[in-house]
């Protein structure tokens, strides 16, 4: 049976790839896309979600706008990373219409009540925090939350210790982890420890273009800016595509392993946005998270290519060699 999910996101280049992957997975029924301010302002993010849905031929999936700013702080954004249009300066044509009157929070509240539904959160968790504030019982009804965010042993990407999604709205993330603790839930934290291993390289992109030119050129169009950013920022030939790993993990649990533990998010000071992972059980609290620390990039890219391109995995013989080019 398909699992119902809401993709809560801030597209965003890697969010777009994640959404494309989710739409390509027969195990998932995407009930809707909720957008939060993050990489791009919320209006731009919603417009980008529609552009991606149009490319995928899935404009039947509704897109709901959520928070325009983080819960308590000013909005920073990450257009330096994702381009001035939030989609790698691909400047794809706008998709008019398909506006929804309902807010993201109301859609979340309604949908989790209808029938079992999970949330894959790929941006700052402001929408989820607002759901908790407005309708705690609705929050409690979420079947499962998988969040791309945070970091444990790996360094941050916005400060020495903080990952972008939780750094952009630390108060939102803090509320969501506390709410998980209150309701006995465990958030799957797909953080930088694992997503840093997911590097789309020029060779992998070339392989994609050879296998499925249309999809390959689309991915190239939206990732070129991201490749350039990683070169200048990290001296990396390739780009880290964080968000699709959260979607892939939701469907295939053996892709990542980690530890069940208690997590808090710092909301003040120089460590703002840091995930404080109590791996040594100092706090003696019931785990509210499954912090993922290990992943298998060869398996990820095999799944990613297979699903996105609609190709049998047995035909993807070059993936191991191409992934090892970068992983060593
Ligand atoms: C996260 O921040 C954004 O730039 C990406 O979309 C991803 O969700 C990585 O830190
Ligand atoms: Ca994102």
Characterise this structure.
- This protein is α/β, with parallel strands linked by helices and 328 residues long.
- It has 2 domains: 3-197 and 241-295, Inosine-uridine Nucleoside N-ribohydrolase, Chain A (Alpha-Beta Complex); 199-238 and 299-327, no CATH class.
- Helix content is 43%, strand content 16%.
- It has 14 helices and 12 strands.
- It has helices at residues 13-23, 42-55, 79-82, 104-114, 126-134, 136-141, 164-168, 170-182, 192-195, 202-211, 213-234, 243-251, 297-309, 319-327; strands spanning 3-9, 28-35, 63-65, 118-121, 145-148, 187-190, 199-200, 239-240, 256-261, 263-265, 275-277, 289-295.
- The strands form 3 sheets. An 8-stranded mixed beta sheet has the order 3-2-1-4-5-6-12-9, with helices on both faces. It has a two-stranded antiparallel ribbon with strand order 7-8. Strands 10-11 form a two-stranded antiparallel sheet.
- Strand 2, helix 2 (42-55) and strand 3 form a beta-alpha-beta unit.
- Helix 5 (126-134) crosses helix 8 and helix 13 packs across helix 14.
- It is globular and about 50 Å long.
- The chain starts with a strand and ends with a helix.
- The mean pLDDT is 97.
- The site of beta-D-ribofuranose (BDR) has 15 residues, from helix 1 and helix 7.
């Amino acid at each position: 049976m398909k699992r119902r999910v809401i993709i809560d996101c801030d597209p965003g280049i890697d969010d777009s790839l994640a959404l494309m992957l989710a739409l390509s997975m027969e195990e998932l029924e995407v009930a809707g896309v909720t957008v939060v301010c993050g990489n791009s302002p919320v209006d731009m993010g919603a417009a980008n979600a529609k552009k991606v849905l149009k490319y995928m031929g899935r404009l039947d999936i509704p897109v709901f706008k959520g928070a325009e700013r983080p819960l308590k702080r000013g909005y920073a954004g990450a257009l330096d990373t994702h381009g001035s249009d939030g989609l790698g300066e691909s400047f794809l044509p706008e998709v008019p219409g398909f506006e929804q009157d309902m807010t993201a929070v109301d859609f979340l509240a309604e949908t989790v009540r209808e029938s079992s539904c999970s949330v894959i959160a790929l941006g700052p968790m402001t929408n989820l925090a607002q759901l908790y504030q407005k309708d705690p019982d609705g929050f409690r009804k979420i079947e499962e939350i998988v969040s791309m965010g945070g970091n444990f042993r790996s360094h941050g990407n916005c400060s020495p210790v903080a990952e972008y999604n939780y750094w952009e709205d630390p108060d939102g993330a803090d509320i969501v982890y506390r709410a998980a603790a209150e309701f006995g839930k465990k958030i799957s934290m797909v953080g930088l420890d694992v997503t840093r291993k997911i590097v789309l390289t020029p060779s992998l992109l070339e392989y994609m273009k050879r296998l499925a030119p249309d999809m390959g050129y689309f991915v190239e169009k939206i990732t070129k800016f991201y490749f350039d950013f990683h070169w200048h920022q990290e001296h990396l030939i390739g780009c880290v595509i964080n968000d699709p790993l959260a979607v892939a993990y939701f469907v295939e649990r053996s892709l990542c392993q980690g530890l069940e533990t208690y997590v808090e998010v710092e909301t003040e000071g120089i460590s703002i946005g840091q995930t404080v992972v109590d791996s040594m059980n100092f706090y003696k609290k019931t785990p509210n998270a499954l912090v993922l620390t290990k992943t298998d990039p060869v398996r990820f890219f095999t799944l990613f290519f297979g699903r996105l391109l609609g190709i049998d995995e047995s035909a993807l013989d070059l993936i191991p060699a191409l992934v090892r080019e970068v992983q060593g």
